[in-house]
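Model it.
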Amino acid sequence: MNRSQARENMIEQQIRPWDVLDQRVLDVLGEIPREQFVDEQYHGVAYSDHRMPIGHGQEMLNPNVDARMIQALALQNTDSVLEIGTGSGYTATCLSRLCRNVETVEISTPLADAARGRFAEMACSNISSHNLDASEIWDAADEYDAIAFTGSVQKIPEYYKLKMAVGARLFVVVGDANAPTMTAMLLTRLTEQEWTSDSLFETCVPPLQNFSAPAGPDDFEF
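Modeled.
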């Protein structure tokens, strides 16, 4: 099977059945060569319905989870996006096709370096990459239009909620790393002091490194 056919099958058999119907999102997923973001030994299964090892103890998200996340963020071409967890660089590349610019943060130096190389190969001139621990305070910009967490957390950091512009969306998977299921959530900032949260679906994804603070009783009340 050629790669073009594999991408089409991924969309029709994995992504559409998960209610991803935004044509802009489907077009991007159909264009980006997913196999270029994994080691050569995984090229033949790059479009399969499971997480893909990318080295250094990390994995690429399932295609359907990536797709639901990107669709949920409802990006406009003028949006500024922050991604927490660059990983292979695949998600940032997809996001970059749908917005004005992407800032992406990765704690692993080898993964960050490899992703930068892929961004250059894919001519992603609107992606800026940071190699740092995003669980700590850093000089992130203010008023992002969208924020995407590509790994799970036990608690949504207040720091990133306050980095959202009014009207911005934040996608995150919340849950204990040892739990059988987690909840994918979408936060929307309504005003300077008000957020809403919506539960999107259940899934299970690897945790982001160092985002291990236990969730408190008020974490999901805005």
